[in-house]
Structures are given as C-alpha cells and as structure tokens.
Amino acid sequence: MSSSRWTTALAVALALVLAFVAFAASAQAPERSLSFAHKDWELVCDNTRTCRAAGYHAEGDDDMAGVSVLLTRKAGPREPVTGELLLASYGDDTQAAKLPKDARLGMFVDGRAVGTVVWADDSGGLALSPAQTQALLQALVGTGRVVWKAGKAQWALSNAGATAVLLKMDEFQGRVGTSGALVKRGAADEAAVAQPLPAPVVKAAATDDRPVTLGAQQKQQLLRALRAATPDADSCELLSGANAGAELEVRRLGRNQLLASGVCWTAAYNQGSGFWVINAREPYAPVLVTTDGSDYSAGTVSADHKGRGLGDCWHHEAWTWDGKAFVPTLSASTGQCRLIAPGGAWHLPTWVANVVPARP
C-alpha cells in the first residue's frame, strides 16, 4: 500500500472510531444502524433503515479525475434506488472547475452511451435518471466500466468493493433472495422485506442561555463534581492540571438546570469540549453529554470533526435539549477522504431524528 493510501485509510479509520466512541458515550446511543466499507465503496444505513452507498474513483489512480456516486434506497417493498453524481471540485485546478456551466456530461457503460447529466457547479450531487441508475447498478455488480465524459475530460468510477457493499445493503434491508435484491436476486416477493422505521421525534425545549457567574468556592465544588462524573477526567484539560476550571463556562438552560462547558482536548486540527447538565444549586449532580463537543447554540450541542487536516471528510454529531436531557439527534459522516469537495462529499447519517423546534 502506498504511503498516501495508508495515510488516508488510517485517517478514515481513526475518524470513524472517534465518532463511534463519542456517540456511544451518550446516554441514549443509537441502535439499528450500520457502517461498512470495502475497497472504493462504503455503506451507511441509518436508524430508519434507509441505506446510502457511496463509491469513488480508484484510489491511487493519479491519472484519473476524482468522482463519487451516491446510491440511496429507503427500506420497504418496491423502493427504488436513486443515484447522484459528484465530480471532484477540491481546488481550482480540477477538471470539474474548468467545465462551463450547463456543460453536458455523457455517461458511458463499457463504451455504450447512457444519456447525459447537466453540470452545475453549485448544485451538490447531480441526479441520475432511473435508466442511468439501473445501468450503473448492472455495471457495478459485474465488471462494467462506468465513465462520464465532457470533451477530453473523463471521470471513471471504480467498482472495486461495490458488490460487497450492495450485498450488505440487501442484507440490512432484508432483500436477499427477493425480486428487488441488487446482488443475490431471487423469486421471493418483496412483501416480507424489512419495513422502514420512524425517526424518533424530539421536541426541543426553549432555553434561557444567559451566562451564570459562580463564586470561587462554587466553582471548585462544581469541578470536583465534574471530575467524579467524567470517565478519564485526567485527560480533560478543563478538569486537570494547574489551570483546571480556568475556561469553565456556565449558562442557564431553565429554572433548575444549567449547562457547564469547557475545552477538554486539543489536537492538530480538531478540538473537543466537555458539556455537562448540572443542577442550578448543589448538589450539582452533573450528567455528561459529551467530551467531544464543538459548539452550543440555542439548545443544541454539536460535535464537528475533520477526518484529516485537508477538511475533505468530516463527522458530525448533535444533541438537542428536550427540557430534561440532551437527546442524540444526529450522527453522520461525509464519506471517505478522497478530495471530492471541501467539507466532504455526502451526508451519510447513521442516526437521524425529527426535531420539533421550541416555541418562541
């Protein structure tokens, strides 16, 4: 394995582990989800049983422009697969950056033309037609070569790992052996496949958010309580060392509860803060939300971390205050670190929720 490929693989693996650990540490960790990757393809299925498979150009092929495809399928009988195309646009020297607006990209499978896609550099993923998506799926489970062309520029999609990923999607949604399976198709009707699950509904509660000033003695008592309530508290800068408590912030959530926070760790291109719900008066009885937080705003704690310094792959978490606790409402990645787009290529959630905004 080349050094660049090893670095990318290590960054992805580390980011995935960090995201899983952070979310698993919350009081209500998500279930019924799946993350799987093989070669140039990956699969993420969320708690509603919707699955998203993302494929990329062949890693290490420096002569080919970067490209990614997203295949999305909801759970349930006879649900179609939808496809989207994204050309690499990380930097001004990419082939996509040189395309004129509304340029037509010809799609080819083994040299056979399969229609066109109209380029728009500000639209995110470009929708593939149902016929193009079907042609793509047939090529992926075989040995077909899929290429998009515009003039002399071309973008080739790798099918290395696609069969394993699509089979895993079928397994997760209970489609193996049915007429709707993508890989191991059979004669069984789809009526018995896994049904979609509803996303949990979280009713956000209104928050006060005014800062709260603690006296020196109160702060020391709170710090002792935070240390006792935090696993591996010695690794949290806010809770250990000579400057413990120096950056402690406290804001009011409601009449009886506050939110305490402060930086816990700093890395090369990421930072994590601790967030705790505490009683407004002693005993503070802290409840840890996360030690990997990035921000707090109007009742939502978020954690946003790069998979590597280039910022082409991210992981996002969110917790929403419902008046009693911070409930997990999002866990997602943006896909592999492949220089597809600044901020990442796709939105690939493993945990979603319907958040009802707080009444003003």
From TrEMBL:
Residues 1-24 form the signal peptide. Keywords: Signal. Pfam families: DUF1176. InterPro entries: DUF1176. It comes from the Bacteria. This is DUF1176 domain-containing protein. It comes from Roseateles puraquae. The lineage of its organism: Bacteria, Pseudomonadati, Pseudomonadota, Betaproteobacteria, Burkholderiales.
